[in-house]
Write a structure and sequence with these properties.
This protein is mostly helical. The chain has one domain. Helix content is about 65%, strand content about 0%. Helix 1 runs parallel beside helix 3 and helix 2 runs antiparallel to helix 3. The protein starts with a helix and ends in a 12-residue tail after the last helix.
Length: about 100
Amino acid sequence: MPSLEEAKLILKKAEELNPGPWVQHSLYVGKVAELIAKKDKELNSHTALVLGMVDVVMRYGFNEFTLKKWNVAFEIQRCFEERIGTSIYSILPNIK
């Protein structure tokens, strides 16, 4: 797993190759993952932050696996919501 500094470097290099708003989205995804992990007794919030940040870099683009990955992501969301006892959206800043 990359360190936080390595994750930021990965994002910086990816942004140089493909600039766009997805970089800010990646940073937000990392923060959201960190917030969700803080509500779960078994998850490491630092790990969630780092992996959340680089997730978008790793899954950029659309191919034959993209739809399957999104379906799995929604299954994971439901699992976390059951574990933390609330919608993930209820703990996210500026989300109503």
